[in-house]
Known about the structure:
Layout: H1 8-15, H2 19-47, H3 65-78, H4 82-88, H5 93-113, H6 125-131, H7 153-159, H8 163-170
Amino acid sequence: MGLQIRDERQMKALTGLSQAQCDSLLPVFSDIYRATQQQTYEEGIQSGTRRRRPGGGSTGKLPTMVERLQFVLYYYKTYPTFDVLGTQFAMARSKAHANLHKLSPILYDTLVHLELMPYRELPTPEELKAALQGEGRLLIDATERTYHRSQDNAKQREHDSGKKTAYVEAHGHGAA
Length: 176
């Protein structure tokens, strides 16, 4: 089934990219997908768990690279539930989940390869200056990202802002 895209406006609305932008991503996405499939195949041969060559078996609901790329772009543009995503692409929600988690790293590697991924961490001021070289405008993404707390108390204290403790101490709500 896939996306039934009628025009350029709808392409941007469903994927966030123009047709020309998708066309420029497709060759690299395809190469990385095939390389990943080949690596998985070779690892399966070595471990003795692989029975088919890459591409063997049923074609699935996303038989072409274009459909695979549109699938993952559609998800990141619209963030539907897996029920909705599966319905849009005529697959079960569990298959939508599995396909997304298989294709997301490939899209990420594609964007990194094409140098389209934004910088996430710049540990030194020199790296920040180098990253901004020649740029006229700076955008900062202030989206909160999850942090998994360490079980080690010393490491937890390194990352603790103390905000909740300060409130509790200031208002006398702490345990005695």
